[in-house]
Amino acid sequence: MNRWYLFFVTLLIAGPLWLWTSRLPVVANPGDLTPEPAIGRIAPDFTLKTPNGDTVRLATLRGKPVVVNFWATWCGPCQREMPALQSASQHYAGQVTFVGVDQGETPKEVTDYLQPLGVNFTISLDSDTKVGDRYQIQGMPTTFFIDANGVIREMWIGEMNAVVLAEGIRKILP
């Protein structure tokens, strides 16, 4: 009995002590951490072309919240969530920037798919999927909600509806 009592008392003392010593310092700043596709970390920068040849660079979008959505035309869940993304991009115009990152397709495939849908937020092409690899995309769609300082505040893997999208956006608005 005394052995168990001693074990639990030691655990009660050592547990909180370990938690306290392993925590991030109060002065920890996400900007001091290396970019990584994880919540609380700076979003890795990328530069991609749009289907019409313009350039999109994530770092130049700082100062305003950004929703980055990795998708493809052949992806059923991506197809189903595209209207919600388009609607949100119109609703939050001027407050939040939306960037779709198509994975591994040609400009013609992307343009032919999006034109009838009336999608007018920024679409970029990750033709060689290097950006998707850097963001460790395992499945599509995958969406990152990035605050105005470039810090990832939320991540959603899988299809979003309007409610999930609005909740993610709420977390990045000032």
Provide structural commentary.
34% of the residues lie in helices and 20% in strands. The protein is of the alpha/beta class. The protein has one domain: Glutaredoxin (3-Layer(aba) Sandwich), CATH 3.40.30.10. The strands form two sheets. The protein has a five-stranded mixed β-sheet. A two-stranded antiparallel sheet has the order 1-2.
CATH domain class = Alpha Beta
The percentage helix is 25-40%
Shape descriptor reads elongated
Unreliable stretches (pLDDT < 50, length at least 5) are: none
| Number of strand segments | 7
The total of helices stands at 5
Tell me the major beta sheet.
Answer: 5 strands, mixed
Q: What's the overall average pLDDT, rounded?
A: 91
Radius of gyration: 20 Å
Distance between the termini: 55 Å
Tell me the name of the CATH homologous superfamily: Glutaredoxin
The sequence of SSEs as H and E is HEEEHEHEHEEH
Strand order of the largest sheet: 5-4-3-6-7
At CATH's second level, what is the architecture?
A: 3-Layer(aba) Sandwich
How many structural units, i.e. domains? 1
**Given the helix and strand composition, which structural class is it?**
alpha/beta
Could you tell me the strand content as a percent range?
A: 15-25%
CATH topology: the name is: Glutaredoxin
